[in-house]
């Protein structure tokens, strides 16, 4: 009896480690793979992380990029998306890529809170957090920096 409880606990523990691991291993945001508050994307070598954060002593929530290796209380934010549009309630807010190649922060009514813009469109737009700390919108199948949107 005790052994089977322990096994169940172990399995639950392992699957929770697995799921928390797999949610932090992408460096991509796509048209159907978006992030919500509490989720992040990480650059391929683990240098930078993008997600929602609160600056010191503020109740405002922002989307930003910070150095992943630094301890959370020493968080060094290197870029802020919605600096002019702080959020107080992120419960239905998502960050996703929309056609034709725009990275947008949307509310539950699908209204744009903040977005990038582009003069060109691509077939399959994705946003990638690079190890240089740059966040770029590009075609999923085109790695040439000169074609980044
Ligand atoms: C937050 O406060 C600490 C201590 O006052 C400071 O060292 C740190 O730089 C601050 N972080 C930001 C993002 O302002
Ligand atoms: C936050 O927003 C959600 C949906 O937009 C709403 O249901 C909820 O009541 C809001 N919470 C607060 C504290 O305003
Ligand atoms: C986005 O860019 C297009 C083309 O450059 C421009 O016409 C449009 O006004 C821009 N939209 C916003 C919201 O800045």
From TrEMBL:
This is Bulb-type lectin domain-containing protein. It comes from the Eukaryota. Pfam families: B_lectin. Residues 26-149 form the Bulb-type lectin domain. SUPFAM superfamilies: alpha-D-mannose-specific plant lectins. PROSITE patterns: BULB_LECTIN (PS50927). Keywords: Glycoprotein, Signal. SMART domains: B_lectin. The keyword Signal applies. PANTHER family: BULB-TYPE LECTIN DOMAIN-CONTAINING PROTEIN, RECEPTOR-LIKE SERINE_THREONINE-PROTEIN KINASE. Residues 1-22 form the signal peptide. InterPro entries: Bulb-type_lectin_dom, Bulb-type_lectin_dom_sf.
């Amino acid at each position: 009896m005790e052994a089977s409880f322990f096994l169940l606990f172990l399995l639950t523990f392992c699957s929770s480690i697995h799921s928390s691991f797999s949610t932090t291993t992408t460096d991509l945001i796509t048209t159907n793979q978006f992030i919500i508050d509490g989720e992040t994307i990480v650059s391929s070598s683990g240098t930078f992380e993008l997600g929602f954060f609160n600056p010191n002593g503020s109740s405002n929530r922002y989307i930003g990029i910070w150095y992943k290796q630094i301890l959370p209380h020493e968080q060094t934010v290197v870029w802020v998306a919605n600096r002019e549009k702080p959020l107080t309630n992120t419960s239905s807010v998502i960050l996703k890529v929309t056609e034709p190649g725009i990275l947008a922060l949307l509310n539950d009514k699908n209204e744009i809170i903040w977005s990038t813009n582009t003069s060109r469109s691509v077939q399959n737009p994705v946003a990638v957090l690079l190890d240089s700390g740059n966040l770029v919108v590009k075609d999923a199948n085109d790695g040439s920096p000169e074609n980044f949107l």
